[in-house]
Amino acid sequence: MIVDNFINLYHGFYIAGDPFNILLMVIGILLGVIIGVLPGLGGANGVAILLPLTFSMSPTSAIILLTCIYWGALFGGAITSVLFNIPGEPWSVATTFDGHPMARSGRAGEALTAAFTSSFVGAFFAIVMITLIAPLVAQFALQFGPAEKFAVYFLAFASFVGMSKEPPAKTIVSMMIGFALAAVGLDMVTGQLRLTFGVTELLNGFDFLIAVIGLFGIGEILLTMEEGLEFRGKAAKIDPKVVWKTWKTLPKYWATSLRSCIIGCWMGITPAGATPASFMAYGIAKRVSKNGKNFGNGEIEGVVAPETAAHAAGTAAMLPMLALGVPGSPTAAVLLGGLLIWGLQPGPMLFVEQAEFVWGLIASMYLGNVVGLILVLTTVPLFASILRIPFSIIAPVILVICAIGAYTVNNNVFDVLMMMVFGVLGYLLKKTNYPLAPLVLAIVLGDSAEEAFRQSLLGSGGSLAVFWSNPLVSTIMALGLIAGLWPLIAMGFSKLRGNTTQPA
Amino acid sequence: MEQAHHGAAAGPKQRAVEIGTALLTMLFGLIVIYGSVIVGYGWGSDGPQAGFFPFYVGLIICICSLINLVMALRTEATGLFAEWGQLGQVLRVLIPATIYVVLIPFLGIYLPSFLLIVVFMTWLGKYGFPLSLAVAVGVPAFFYLTLERWFLIPLPKGPIEAMLGL
């Protein structure tokens, strides 16, 4: 089994190593870093905007381009955090804590090298894990019936509720709005129209790509405008000497790295995502490290921990997307939407029917991250100068890009209006602490989740007991309940511990 | 009503906006329930009806919105949602952007994009006309060349483009 993987992977390298695909990787990474650096454009909506451009490519080349944009965006977030103290992406917020103080004290090159290298290490760890585990998960998932499928969706969404730092009721509302929007339009099972209220534009329902571009793109621009950002950054130049010097110090932090890798992988697979992973890794490193007191004043370990975890999580999010058809992050959700558009059915059958595609993609992750590391180390000054372009030039250009992106999804001008509505909604929800990721994931998965739910109930004649009918489905459902109720359970534990320590 | 502060720190309260948002999501939930009831939310002859799943989705939205509403009502009205000045900044982007997307169906994408960039750069950015015009012409031209010419993806066009025969 494992040997088979390596043979497949070798074959995958053959596909990914094609000069055209390498060129796409370079383009993808560069575009991705630009997207990651610019406010208002991020991994999810950047990929969503560029998705229509890939319709004419082969699926393998298309996914290589788009995943590389994703890697690039992950790298790009670190640049703005370190140099400008502005997290380009939510998952690089924790990187600002120590990265920016390092830049202020003239160690920007060191901080960036550490950030990029840690990103690479985290991503690499996650890819190795994907290589080894994804085929096993897929094979295991082949025996899933509709009830098990729904249970997996349940687990995915329940972990959002449990892991999110936002209040559970808000997470649930945001998620259910996504499900409701997904339900609008033609009902696949009965062929009936629903929730359209006679508006013909709603016949096809809401496209999640439009939602992503609006929520993350327009919403972000409005937020940036409110904060009245002025970019006052530190200059950065990375010369080989600094890189070499930093690399020599990094092995010292192997324990932090490894811990962050594991946290990242775990948080990435359960769709909690890169942002909590980076905070958690930073928090634990601060508590465990000898230099913990100095965290926040420019400690290199404080850059290593969150960056490693964020990238491990961002990459690990691809595993459930490929093996189960359940994306672990909004960007993975957009990629999943891309697979559907290219005519590929994500999920366990992908490994059987489209082995070439899957292994080409996995091999491209290895190559893409190596290419990415080299590229970002050599081109940082260029990207830092992009950030110096004033916001009043950047903002209208990004608006135009978002509008074009929204239009090209379905060649429909109504979608551009919808994008604006989603933009205002995104601003409002973000300001009132409703998480946006569950909303997007629910729009993407809504139809599949509903189908699995209804098929299971059809099989059982309407009895909910079908979700507890065999050990497999019961286990997944139980895990889902634990994940969803985790805050309550954790509270119970700490209370219990508090009570037992008192008498002693 | 409390007296408005004269100074920088005036604006709508976070509490008020939270309450408004909860009411808004509840309204949305009710619409979803209503729409589901119209198409039937029960168990038909061939299994669950079309409104079955959305009905419960709507129900959960309403219940959780109620929780959010109660939570919001119980918080103290101290935190600000944003200062008026900040909201003004937001509106200065939102209004041109809204006009922009409304114009697209009628004028195509190129002319509104040109206008948006010029207005933005001269009005908000205080840039001179030469630079603004250069960016405003350059960006749409770039997208015309890459998308329409290279990738063969058509973008919306209006009467101006038709006149020019593009």
TrEMBL record, chain A:
For this UniProt record, the keywords arranged alphabetically read as follows: Membrane, Transmembrane, Transmembrane helix
List membrane-spanning regions: 20-51, 63-84, 111-138, 171-190, 202-223, 257-285, 321-345, 357-377, 389-407, 465-489
- InterPro entries given in the database record: DUF112_TM
User: Which ranges carry the DUF112 domain?
Assistant: 22-441
Superkingdom of source: Bacteria
Note the PANTHER family from the entry: BLR4373 PROTEIN, TRICARBOXYLIC TRANSPORT PROTEIN
What name has this protein been given in UniProt? TctA family transporter
User: Where does this protein come from, organism-wise?
Assistant: Ancylobacter vacuolatus
Taxonomically, what lineage is the organism?
Bacteria, Pseudomonadati, Pseudomonadota, Alphaproteobacteria, Hyphomicrobiales
UniProtKB/TrEMBL annotation, chain B:
Q: Where is the DUF1468 domain?
A: 23-156
Question: Is the keyword Transmembrane assigned to this protein?
Answer: yes
- InterPro entries hit by this protein: DUF1468 (IPR009936)
Q: Which Pfam families match?
A: TctB (PF07331)
Q: Which UniProt keywords apply?
A: Membrane, Transmembrane, Transmembrane helix
Transmembrane stretches in the record are: 21-43, 55-73, 93-121, 127-147
Q: Does the keyword Transmembrane helix apply?
A: yes
**What organism is this sequence from?**
Ancylobacter vacuolatus
Q: What is this protein called?
A: DUF1468 domain-containing protein
Taxonomically, the superkingdom here is Bacteria
